[in-house]
Every structure is written in structure tokens, then in C-alpha cells.
Amino acid sequence: MCRELCLSVGAPKKGRSKSQLYEICAANYWKPPLFECCKEEGPSHAKMFTYKVIVEIKEASTTVLECFGAPRLRKKEAAEHAAEGALWYLKHIGFSQRTIRLAPDMCAPCPFPL
């Protein structure tokens, strides 16, 4: 018998937005999100980085989601901010909870009670 696993996109924990976005993409059999540094500005000792993330949402039709984060001093934080924007959008178009059905041969004992 297949197990069901629900992923929630609530308020992401600090530093977890990118991971959560990767999990949602994998769970829905979408391509992994693509993160890109699209802007570097400021002097070398105080550079600000702006990242964008691209997610291809494959449902009945394909939608390409492109979210830009705010400039940040660290690349990792800039990418996280872009991921937060993508998660916010996915939540507001109905991906706040997603049920994933695993093939029977992929099932392992489930740590979550059904």
C-alpha cells in the first residue's frame, strides 16, 4: 500500500526556504529550482547581491515562476530571500499542501501516522 506524505509551505524557518523549495519541486516531479545571481552592486568591501529563482510548474500547462529577492550582503542570504518569494507565491496559488503518492516499491515504514 502506498504512503502519503504532505508537504506544507507555511512560514519557512530561517535558512530553510531553498531546501523547502527543492523538496516541493522534487515532490511534484518538477525540475529543480534554478538560482542565479543576477546583480552585484556596490564597492568590493560592501557588495550587495541580488538573486532570482526560476521554477517550472508543470501541471495541465507549464508555468514559469521567476522570483527576485532583495539585495543582501551575502549570496546565500540573497538566494534564500528569492526562495522565500517563490514559496509565498506557491502557497497563494494552492501549493500550501501537496500530497505525494509513492510507488509501492518505494514505500518504507512511514514515520508519520496516517
TrEMBL record:
One Gene Ontology MF term: RNA binding
Cited InterPro entries: dsRBD_dom
Signal peptide: none
Highest rank taxon of the organism: Eukaryota
Gene3D superfamilies registered for this protein in UniProt: 3.30.160.20
Gene label: DCL4_3
Ranges where the DRBM domain occurs: 16-92
Source species taxonomy: Eukaryota, Viridiplantae, Streptophyta, Embryophyta, Tracheophyta
Protein name as annotated: Dicer-like protein 4
Alphabetical keyword list: RNA-binding
Pfam families in alphabetical order: DND1_DSRM
